[in-house]
Known about the structure:
The complex is a heterodimer. Chain A is an alpha/beta fold.
Amino acid sequence: MYNRKLAKLLTHSYQILAVILILLAGGLLLLPSYEKHEGIEPESLLANAISPERYISSDELAHKIISGDPSILVIDVRDSERFESYSIPGAINIPLEDILDEENEEYLDQAAYEIVLCSDDNFYADQAWILCNRLGYKNLRVLQGGMQDWFNSVINPPQPDEKMPNSEHELYSFRKSASMFFGVAYEDEVKATPPAPKPSPKPKTVAPVKKKKKKMPEGGC
Amino acid sequence: MKELEKTKRISIAAVLSILLILIALLNYKKPSFLYAQNTSTTLMKMDTTDYLVSPQGLETESYVLVDVRNPFDYEKGHLPEAINIYAPELLSKDHTAQLNEYLQEGKIILLYGRDPHETLPAFMMLCQLDMGPVKILESENYFEKDKLITTYSEVEKPSPDITGFIETSVKKANESKKQAAKRTVAPPPPKKVAPVKKKKKKMPEGGC
C-alpha cells in the first residue's frame, strides 16, 4: 500500500521538482529590487560626509596655484553669472544643478586631477561633494569657507598687529604676496617699487665768507 | 531497476540544489537602510531653498527640533524641546524609529547644529532615505559664557565683489604711484634768500 503510493508519487517527481525550481527562480527575479539603489552604502556615505578630510584651506589652494601644481583643478559650482563676476584663476564652471550631467562626468569621475569644488561658502560645494561621493567619485576636495574665505584670507588678508605671534606675521606676508599674485596692488608696495628717486646731489653749502669790509677809517679823537 | 536508480540520483541532486538556494535565501541580509531617492532626484530637492528655516519662523509650524551636535554640547545647552541625535549615530534603528514616530504624528523634522554646514550631512542622508519632511534651521549656535546663543546665519551669503576690490586696489595704487612720481618731479622749494642788508657806507663821522 505504502510502496504503491510512493511509486505513484515518484512518477510525478520530475514535475514536482521542476515546479519547485521554477518557483525559486521566480523568487530570484524579486531579489534585485533590494539592490537597485545606486552608489555606496548609506552608512559609509554618512561617515564620509561627516569627516572633515575633504576640506582644503584657501592658503593651501593659493599655494598650489602659485607654485603651478598641474594636478589641481578648481570647479566653481555657483551659477554662471556669479562665476563670470569673479572666480579663482583657472577655475571651470559647472553649476550645481548640472553637476550630474553626463558631459560633466568626465571632469568629476577621473583619477588624473585633484578637483577642488568651491562656492560662495562651502554649503553648495558640500552638497555636490556628497552626491559625487555617493556615486563613488574619488579625488574630490572642497574649498573650506568658499569664496568668502578666499576673499578674507587670500585676497584681503587682515593685517596682524605687533602683539601677535611671529607665525601670524609670516602667514600675513605669505597671504600678501599671494594676493599680489592674484592681482591686488598695495599702496605701500607700489611706493617701494618705483626706482627710488635718485639722491639728488646735495647742494653744496657754500659758507659765504664774509669779506671784511674795508672800513673807512673812522676819525678817532 | 536501473531507471529507478537514475531518478534517485537526479532527485537527490535536485533536493540538494534546492537546499542550497534556501540556505542562500536565509542568509541574505536585507540592508538596514536603503536610498529611496537616487542622486538626480536628491539634487532636484537641493536646488530649491525650501528646506531652510530661519530662527524667526520657529513657532509657526509644528517642528520637532533635532540637535545633531555631540551629546556633551547638547547637555551644556540646547534649544527648548530639542532631542539629541548625534549625526554619526543617525543610522541606528533606535534613532530612525524615534524620528519615524514624530513623522507619523505629522511633525516636520528640523535639524540644527553648530552651523548649517554641520547639519548638512545628516540632512542629505535623511533626504536620500526619504524619511519624510526634513528641514534645516538656518542658524549658528555657539556658547558664550556657557550660554547657548542662536543667531541667524545666511547660507551661501554672496561673497564680496572681489573683482571690484582688486580693481580699486590697483586704481588706488596707481594714484599713489602718480603722487609719488609727482613728489619726486616737483621742483625743490625755492631757496629762501635772506636779503643781506648792505651796510650803507657811512660817511666817516667826524670825531669829536
